[in-house]
Amino acid sequence: MKLLFIGVAVASAISFSACNSNADKTTDHSAMQHNLDTMKDMPMHSSTTSNAATTSKFSEVFSHYQHLTFALANDDSKEAANGAKAMGEAIAKVDKSGFTADQQKGYADLEADMKEHTEHITANANNIAHQREHLETLSKDVYDLTKSFGAGKPLYKIYCPMYNDNKGAYWLAESKEVKNPYFGNKMLTCGEVQEELK
Amino acid sequence: MKMVKRIFIGFVVIIIVIQFIQPVRNTSGQVVPQSFIDTFQPNDTIVKLLANSCFHCHSNNTKYPWYTNIQPVGWLMAKHINDGKDELNFDDLAALSNRRRNSKFKSISEQIEQDKMPLKSYLFIHRNAALNEADKKLLINFFQSKIHNN
Ligand SMILES: [Cu+2]
User: Fold this and answer.
1) How many structural domains compose chain A?
2) B133 assigned to some structural domain
3) Residue A176 pLDDT > 50, yes or no?
4) What is the ipTM of this complex?
């Protein structure tokens, strides 16, 4: 009996210690939620919506994407999580009326991928390196989105060859000014305009 | 002293009672994710590595060691499998679009490269699921070779 008890106690000790990784996540989440509430009335938000005057159905998506890249360029992972969350919401709200069958299919694919990346960036407010990994794929989605649907305003594809052990990565920006979201302060100006999108 | 004894007995009773609450098992009857193997053609070594280190939490079929019959170990395992399958399910990969596959393969390579997967808490009890540097390289090269940008 005593032996059984010890066995069970050890087993539960192991599993409780194993639970740690999950426990971290939940606490982060609530901290982030809190952060988000305080963010609501900050000026950044109103300035992003002012761009909505453009004709593109995706202007909200682009402006929150920009919010995200600026935050990462500032090494601010909490703010990046906010931007990604808003971007995810904008993606879900995109008006799909008037899409052809092909466009619907194309957008569904982009939407599923962007949803995953924005969710991971939102959930990793404590892990900026991981946020940046998802930004890389997300930026490819946004690029393809622009290619198929148009941006509604000029967008620049900016490439930095140094990211990820010199494998390189790009992001998109409304201005030619280079503020690298992959390196932040470490190498803020790494990057050059590779392409102009309309 | 009486109090301590009561708490102890209470604890034992709880531990015994929770043994009867077994989580639902993640088993499809199929040992390996066949659609993944048919579509992406990994060689036997890669299948073995993945079966040993990843499929438990990222496919429709988990091999359950005896101690997962002891609660709360089994509950914890069930939670990992649920969360893990949400993120990545090798049984679903073949059905994904090229874009979604690329995302998954990139993420898999990064997780292996940075020793984030298999989960540390899992390695703690499943020592043999650990990947050495050669295994890691083999897997990363395989997944990288499956990333096709159109
Ligand atoms: Cu992630």
Assistant:
1) 1
2) yes
3) yes
4) 0.80
